[in-house]
Amino acid sequence: MKKEYLVLDKVEGALIELSKVHAVGYGEIVQVENNLGEKKLGRVIKIDGDKVVVQVFGSTLGHSVENTKVSFEGRPFEIPLSRDILGRTFNGIGMPIDKGGDIYSDNFYNVNGRPINPVSREYPRDYIQTGISSIDGLITLIRGQKLPIFSGSGLPHNELAAQIVRQAKIKVKGEERNNFSIVFAAIGVKHDEAFFFKEAFKKAGVQNKVVMYINYADDPIMERIIAPRAALTAAEYLAFEENQHVLVIMTDITSYGEALREVSSLREEVPSRRGYPGYLYSDLASLYERAGMLKDREGSVTLIPILTMPNDDITHPIPDLTGYITEGQIVLSRELHQKNIYPPINVLPSLSRLMKDGIGEGYTRDDHPDISNQLFSAYSKVQDIRALAQIVGEDDLSDRDKRYMKFGDAFEANFVTQSYNENRDIDNTLELSWKILSLLSQEELDRLKPDLIEKYMKLGD
C-alpha cells in the first residue's frame, strides 16, 4: 500500500529523516517531491523503530522539512527488462540515456537479485577464450567464474577490459557458442572513460550485444551503489531467462567501495578498516556471488570486476576482501607497464582457482596443465636470478642462470606482450609457450611429462 508523509524531521545532504512511519521495508523505493513539483527517487537505508532514513538519488537542494512530500511505494527498487535492452545504454538506476526510448515490459526485476539455492548451481567447467596469451595460458577464465582485475591508477585496465570484450569467445564442450552477450557497468567513471568504452564496442562491432549501465563521477552517490546491482540483474535476466552466456565487466569497484564508505559516514555508522563500513565484505559478496550457472538453465553469468588499488596496495580492504570472495585474480604490474609491456599482467601473483577444471584434454589441449605449471615454475626462478644479477652482475652468472635470464626476457617480450588488436587462439598460445621453453635445457623442464616433450617440443626453434 502506498503511503505519503508531509512532515519531515530533518533534511541533511542527500538524507531525509522522518518519524512515525509504519510498515515500511528496508530498501523500499521512495518518491520525494517538493512544492515545485520536482520529483526524485530515493531508497530506505535505515529503520530504527518508527524512524526512517531515506537516501535520495540526487541533491536535496530546494527541499525542506515543510515543503517536501515523501511517498513510500511499497516495493523494492525494480527495473523493467526485456531482450530489447541489448545494444542500449542506461544510467546507474536503469533509466535510458541513449535517446532510444523507455524499455516496455510486463516484467520488473528487483535489483537485489534472486537468491540462488547453492544445490542448484552448476560447477564451472568450460573456458572462455580471451585471445590474450597470459590469461588463456596461465590464468584461464572459466564460464561462470568471478575473476577480478587488480590494477592501479594509470594502468591500462580499461584497454584490457575492452580487448577482452572484443575478443572473448565462449566454448561449451569444445564448441563455440553464438548466444553470447556483454553487460558493462561503469561505476563513478569520468566521461572520457565512458566514451572510450562506447567507441571500443562500436569499432569492434559488438555494440548490439552490449548492455551498458553508466554512473558518471558527477552523478549522485546513491546511483553508484545501485548501478552494479542493476547491471547484474540485467545479466541474470539474459542468462537465466534468455539463455545467453553473459560476460559482466564492472569498473571501478574501488569507486563503489568509496560510495559505500560515504553513505556509511552519512548514516553515522561505526567505521571499520580505513573508514570502510564493517559490512564491506558481505556487501561485496552480495555482488560477486551473483555470478555462476544453474543446472536447469543453459545460460551463465561470468564476472570480471576491475578495481584500482590505492597506492598499488594489494592489502587495501577492497582488493583484500575481494580476493577472499572471488576465484582468483589478474594482477597488473606497474613495473611491466613502465617497460612498455602490454598487457602488463604480472603472472606470478595472478591465479585462476577454477582453471584446473576447465583446461586439458576435452577442453583446451592435453599439454595445457603441464605447460602452464612449467611456465610458472621457470618464470619464478627468473625473478630470483634477476635479484642475484643485481648483486653479482650478469657476467658472473652461470650458463644455466643466463639461459633463465634469456627465457625471462623472451617470456615477457613474446608471450606476455601482445598488441591491443592481436587475438591469439589457445593453440597459438600453447605453441608459443613451447617455443619459449625451448630456450631452456630439457633437464630444466621438470614439470613436463617426457611424452609431452616428445610430442610438442620442436627442437631447433
UniProtKB/TrEMBL annotation:
It comes from the Bacteria. GO terms for biological process: proton motive force-driven plasma membrane ATP synthesis. Residues 11-73 form the ATPase F1/V1/A1 complex alpha/beta subunit N-terminal domain. Residues 357-456 form the ATP synthase A/B type C-terminal domain. One of its GO terms (molecular function) is proton-transporting ATPase activity, rotational mechanism. Transmembrane segments: none annotated. Residues 131-352 form the ATPase F1/V1/A1 complex alpha/beta subunit nucleotide-binding domain. The keyword Ion transport applies. Keywords: ATP synthesis, Hydrogen ion transport, Ion transport, Transport. HAMAP family: ATP_synth_B_arch (MF_00310). Produces ATP from ADP in the presence of a proton gradient across the membrane. The V-type beta chain is a regulatory subunit. PANTHER family: V-TYPE PROTON ATPASE SUBUNIT B (PTHR43389). Belongs to the ATPase alpha/beta chains family. This is V-type ATP synthase beta chain. It comes from Tissierella praeacuta DSM 18095.
